[in-house]
Amino acid sequence: MVLIQQFTKLPVFRQLSHKELKKVKEENENELIVGDRKFIKQNSFKNFLKFRTKVLISVSFVLLFVSYSMLNLNFVTNSWIKNNGFFTLFFCCLYIWLFWFYLKNLYQKRTKPKIINYLMFSGVIYISFSSLFQYDLIQGFLSAGREGSINQLILYNYFYVFLFNMAFYFITDIFDIDLAKFKAKKLNYYTSTDNLLLVVENEN
After folding, report:
1. Please, are residues 148 and 136 in contact by the beta-carbon 8 Å criterion?
2. CA 18, 19, 21: angle at the middle one, nearest 5?
3. Where are the transmembrane segments (predicted)?
């Protein structure tokens, strides 16, 4: 499969058609000719990230909105202590740091730190254990709201942690797949003189 960057403000990629694939010529193992453009193999970390820019921007946009909502809720309702706001802030910051640490190791060592696997679902585990101490909350869920009481502020804080946890899992899963293909030499990046990026994935 061959993907080429389109002429857009964001690095959006499309797959080459069968007609376009017939025009692809391999000069040598480090050069490809596509039409009148020459692409040179550059398996750099910059191109690794550039290929997933759309994913990074999309997830970042969602998490910025979630972060604003979380901070606004806890400041306005003063829920930092009473409704686990500080724990929510801690886990949100934890996942931001973990992703930075993850990218740093990909750049320097091309490896995934073990701490990422250990803390991957720490947010979900926190929600599970914390909810055990919220008897009224559990009773409200089990009785569909007829008994007990559901503290919506705590639910919102749990939801924020869950969103950060799932976003971290989603984006690292995509990067892990790319990294595995890259190490197996099944994924290569080629750049042209006009900064177009060509991604060649060998499915064999």
Report:
1. yes
2. 60
3. 55-73, 85-103, 115-135, 155-175
Token couple for 183: 């190490």
pLDDT in tens, 136-161: 665 555 554 454 445 788 889 999 99
Q: Do 118 and 142 belong to one domain?
A: yes
CA trace torsion 112, 161, 123, 85 (10° rounding): 130
C-alpha span between 15 and 151 (Å, rounded) = 49
Q: Is 170 part of a structural domain of the chain?
A: yes
Residue 57 covered by a domain: no
In a domain, 54, yes or no: no
198 and 3 Cβ atoms separated by less than 8 Å: yes
Give how many domains the chain has, as a whole number. Answer: 2
In a domain, 104, yes or no: yes
Quote the CA–CA distance of 71 and 67 in Å, as a whole number.
Answer: 6
pLDDT tens digits, one per residue of 53-90: 989 999 999 999 999 999 999 999 998 988 899 999 99
Q: What is the pTM of this model?
A: 0.85
Residue 24, domain extent:
2-49+185-201
82 alpha-carbon distance from chain centroid? 31
| Position with higher pLDDT, 36 vs 168 | 168
Contact at 8 Å (CB) between 116 and 103? no
Q: Do both 45 and 107 map to the same domain?
A: no
Do 193 and 175 lie in one domain? The reply is no
